[in-house]
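fyi for ur records
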Amino acid sequence: MLDIETFDNLRGGNVAYKALAHPLAAERLAALAAQAGSVAIFDPDGIAGPLLALCPDFDVEGVYVQDTLALGKMRGGHAARSLTELAHANVKSVLITAFDGQRTARLLAAFAPKGAEILTLDGARLPEAMLTNKTRYLESVNFATNFVFFRDDGHFATRLTTANYWSGYGAKAVRFFHRLYDGTGAVLTEWEDEAPTGPGGYVLDSTVIRRRFGLGPFAGQLFIHAMGVAGHDVVKYALDTYATDNGSSLSCTHDANAWPSDRFAGLPAPRADERVILWVQNSHAVPIPAGAMALDRMGEEAPVAIDVEIAPFASHPLDVADYFPGLHWPAQIELRAGRHVVRPRYEVVRGGRTRIAHINVERGDLKDDPGIKTLHESMGRGFLLPFPVLPRTRFKTIVQPTPMAISEQNLPLRLDVFAADGKLLLQRFLGKLPRRHDLALDLDDVLEPDALPDGGHAELVYDFREGGEANGWMHALFRFEDRHSGHAAESSFGAHIFNTIMTYKNEPQSYSGKPPGLSTRLFLKLGFGGRESFCVLLYPASGPWAPHSETALELFDANGALIDTASLSIACSGSAIVFPSRYFTAEKLREAGETGYVLIRDTTCRLFGFHGVEDNAGGFSFDHMFGF
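which gave:
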């Protein structure tokens, strides 16, 4: 496993990791290693491990520390020594593993080996023009970055859509730095773009990028760094994949989640008539050694090594059937990623159609929480995992619970189904599912044939009637299939406590201030290339809340100008399907353009949503929405 610390659910992201892993910083670290020669490392902040994991080129004589409690402990493969021994090191240089470290360098000079050059990580800083906060380097806003699965290969194109949501937090001049890698990890091109001055939309289409830079076909990844930001330090986006060869493929996914993880879960095994391809995209400037990652059937504890080396920033497609021949849906597969990759994409090929979806971070820090079993009655139904049931006259809806914590051994679950008006139609106990379960519930098997012709939604809820444990990180995969065209889409997400005035730990979540979360700010892109966008908004409630939402649909253009506003009311525990064309005139939508978007706002409740686009040939995409 790569010796890095990336994200902690309580403390948030590790800025030092982002500073060391940034592609430009990685190049400068390699140059710094060449300059350092034989080097003694003084490690005041405990980052020697990730430094040497991400840049193993340093010729390290030893690692030295001040903290007496750290003496003898391993840092980057070296037992930490006392700083009092540093003067006797036979080295060319001393490296202080700190940014903004000049004061420390001056103090250390008296204790360094005679004639040794004293270096700091300032030699690996990003260019000054890329820094949002120039006074303190390790500030989260200096590293608002993400990776994008980006492909334009003659069959498929990809299209990233986001907005300058940082302007709403006071950002004045946001710019984007991009670096595009091909499948081998080679840099194809890099460039910068200015974001709109206000909360305008921003689109990167791979077909436009190919023309702009004269590129050939590629299937790799795009690194994107937002500069001049405020409020959020992650680049959020929606990513569409669409056919360019007159094919019928169309899908969309959420942003990549910028933090590498030990494990990922929620990868479905193929049906007998499918291929499932997992795209492993190296997020670092060091190779992934053969055997450093593995696939395992969920709950089997018999991992199969991925016996191939993957070059820095390279993209490698793995056919699941090569590792598990004969394993079919509804079996699930776990990726033991060793912190080498951010949230990977997978590709399902079936009947001439390809769809793209993502797997999710499997938490290693979570343990069972006995308090969930004894939640106070004021918390109502507690944790809910809501998902749409698309109109059943056209679509099948299938739900598959997915273990999403290493410690999770069972999932005691119930399914609650609601009509669009909030009426409870069905409650069905699913059992105390083992980690290695094979349940994929087709709602056709539990609903009356004429139920929900126009759609509704369902929620997974903890139910302990047969015992079991819970941790609050309940997840599931949702698959939607067009009964006529055969087109499918799938998405996955996790549970929260929704819309209660009482709180449990950090739930209900709130994007600003302390819980409970009583507001909604969701991003809905507009259609492109003749396709129409839509979303399904859900109003889940763990306990009694406002009878109806007071939802505003705000139409913005590419420059962030508000063009028009429409209103919407959703029943508590209800849902609504929203097509922008039903709320805004064709003239207003043309004025917004394909780079415009709809912001869904509600200050009375927290809504949850899924979005996508559909064409006129039975194709559609669908994934959960993002907010800011």
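Helices lie at 15-21, 23-36, 48-54, 102-108, 206-213, 320-323, 586-592. thats all i got for now
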